[in-house]
Design goal:
Mean pLDDT: 96
Order of helices and strands: HEEHHEHEEH
Low-confidence stretches: none
Largest sheet: 5 strands, mixed
Length: 153
Amino acid sequence: MDPMSPDARFMQHALRLAQHAQRDGEVPVGAIIVMGDRIVGEGWNQPIKTHDPTAHAEIVALRAASASLATYRLNAAVLYVTLEPCVMCIGAIINARIARVVFGAWDQKAGACGSVLDVPRETRLNRRVDVFGGVSGEEASALLKTFFGERRR
């Protein structure tokens, strides 16, 4: 992928947010929501700090974008996240009507966009979201591996 492409550029921003989560002792996942060429919401994992199991990076970013735009309908938005969304997060993404999701690392244990489940392609749902995985995937995966390696020591 061209390092100057919008997807690569926005994923770099999400990776910086993931590093913020890591400094806080959280699993290093970062997310941003973009409309046009403008970031309208961002977040990083915060469930430990906030004592909130729903405080995944995607949910935090969705809440920020919805608050800044004063609507929960984010029809034209793209969500960039460093790790494949889980079931909870892809459900919220679909309910927010996000148009497109771009993620970094695949999650072989809890991923709901093709790894364990493939919720966005479920034909029985009333909404669709375009999903593209693997953008800066090696970098996102390395960040997670380093984090969990340090935790195991």
